[in-house]
Amino acid sequence: EQTRGVPLAGLAVKVTTGFFLIGLSAADADRDRNLQLLKERAWFDIPVVYNNNRRAILAIEKGTPGDRAFAEAFKTWKQ
Length: 79
Description:
Elements (H helix, E strand, L loop, with lengths): L9 E7 L2 E6 L3 H13 L2 E7 L5 E7 L1 H14 L3
Antiparallel strand pairs: 1-2, 3-4
């Protein structure tokens, strides 16, 4: 919880009001760094900016089920 967050390399694009598409960079160095972060970090912070410009952070802990889900995904993707 006290570890400072590190952003993933990618881009978030607003599709329509309240809907966003997030894509991760496919550049080799970015991809390797993103994979390492997704595998090793226990928490993910998602910054949110509301219509009134107020800000919040949604903090999500992977936990054991999340670790399993990521491990299965990486195995499927051969990562």
